[in-house]
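re: the backbone from monday

yeah here it is again, tokenized this time
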């Protein structure tokens, strides 16, 4: 594989915002530089199975090496794995491949043989015309840059390395830093990694996933998976020293790479900045990020990860199950709000949306009239009844992954469920 590594930019672009309350160790300039590089035409949206996407993995391996991390896979930073299915743009992935990128920061003392996994996915949706892959840098507007999703998570991950390398605590966990490939096409990279782990799964005490953390709405940060270990609750709250409005969810099933670790009985936390208007569009560009939010989130993650790294003892995994049959539960959540109208005109498999209310959770996430919802929160949706059952099994404020069919393509969206009492 040919790696094209872009050198550091000679000028730093600052988006504005007051960062005076943020820890001095965090470099806002480094944060935005990395996003600019990853979203440049050279990497053309980091599409799965593309030359540009694999070049981006090579860039990340070089960044890990330069940061002083040990190779995560023996003598290598890269883990190659085969792809399956289709890309977001409908391109057949059969016979193509992607990479996970991993590096290790050793621990010390009694916790040195235990691991904290920190992850973020590096892939995005690639070019609007996938047949142009490998034909040189893409021009603006011809590819999905994915600044928030998920160049933002990658830059937070890289920034944490600098702080954690200076950690002198005599007892601290080793850290496995991972940039996952193929998250956008069904968590294929993280699924491959847990089946071919660089360190024993039994040594992984917890996994923290950073996805879409480049902006917030009203200072609200979503943290889910808090009940997957009994040690998480107090640490998640204690790390919030800057007055963020934390929206805390118990389960660890919201759709991103942490889910694959949860299925292997490893406690998980998912840090998410919330839905945003540019999601899965060509408008998800670095100038749309809120640098003040990005730095605040990085500072929060810094405190949270350090506390997790130093926490003595085992992190026992707790299964946080969803209700399978909420219609049998007298305490079902009838106030949970999605914000759509059902289409009864067609006899189809799934829940077709006849309309989406402006400002509703569905609208904010990017769902549209005509979408057919076929999966929600890990449950199959075959009709209005099954949709309603899944909706009522979740509380307002919960993050759920939904799969919809649109124009022949299968797309995934993260929806933050609302409360009917707060409808405007």
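seq for it, each position gets an aa:
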């Amino acid at each position: 594989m040919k790696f094209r590594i872009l050198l550091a930019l000679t000028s730093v672009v600052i988006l504005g915002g007051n960062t005076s309350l943020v820890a001095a160790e965090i470099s806002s300039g480094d944060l935005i530089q990395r996003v600019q590089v990853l979203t440049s035409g050279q990497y053309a949206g980091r599409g799965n199975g593309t030359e540009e996407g694999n070049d981006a993995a090579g860039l990340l391996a070089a960044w890990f090496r330069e940061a002083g991390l040990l190779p995560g896979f023996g003598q290598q930073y890269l883990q190659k794995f085969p792809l399956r299915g289709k890309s977001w743009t409908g391109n057949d992935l059969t016979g193509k491949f992607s990479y996970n990128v991993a590096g290790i920061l050793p621990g010390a003392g009694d916790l040195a043989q235990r691991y904290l996994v920190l992850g973020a996915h590096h892939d995005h949706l690639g070019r609007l015309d996938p047949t142009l892959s490998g034909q040189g840098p893409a021009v603006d507007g011809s590819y999905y840059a994915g600044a928030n999703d998920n160049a933002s998570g990658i830059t937070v991950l890289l920034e944490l390395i600098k702080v954690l390398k200076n950690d002198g605590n005599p007892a601290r966990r080793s850290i496995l830093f991972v940039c996952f490939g193929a998250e956008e096409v069904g968590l294929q990279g993280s699924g491959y990694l847990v089946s071919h782990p660089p360190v024993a799964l039994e040594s992984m005490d917890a996994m923290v996933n950073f996805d879409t953390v480049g902006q917030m709405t009203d200072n609200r940060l979503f943290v889910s998976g808090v009940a997957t270990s009994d040690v998480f609750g107090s640490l998640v709250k204690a790390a919030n020293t800057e007055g963020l409005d934390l929206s805390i969810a118990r389960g660890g099933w919201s759709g991103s790479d942490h889910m694959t670790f949860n299925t292997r009985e490893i406690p998980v936390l998912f840090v998410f900045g919330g839905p945003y208007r540019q999601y899965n569009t060509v408008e998800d560009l670095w100038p749309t990020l809120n640098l003040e939010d990005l730095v605040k989130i990085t500072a929060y993650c810094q405190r949270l990860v350090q506390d997790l790294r130093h926490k003595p003892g085992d992190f026992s995994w707790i299964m946080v199950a969803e209700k399978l049959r909420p219609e049998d539960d007298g305490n079902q959540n009838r106030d949970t709000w999605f914000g759509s109208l059902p289409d009864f005109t067609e006899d189809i498999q799934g829940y077709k949306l006849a309309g989406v209310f402006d400002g509703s959770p569905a609208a904010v996430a990017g769902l549209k009239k005509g979408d057919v919802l076929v999966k929600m929160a890990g449950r199959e949706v075959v009709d209005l009844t099954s949709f309603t059952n899944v909706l009522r099994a979740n509380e307002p404020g919960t993050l759920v992954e939904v799969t919809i069919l649109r124009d022949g393509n299968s797309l995934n969206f993260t929806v933050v469920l609302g409360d009917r009492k707060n409808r405007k």
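DSSP finds nine helices and 19 strands in the chain. Residues 28-310 form a domain with the Aminopeptidase fold (CATH 3.40.630.10).
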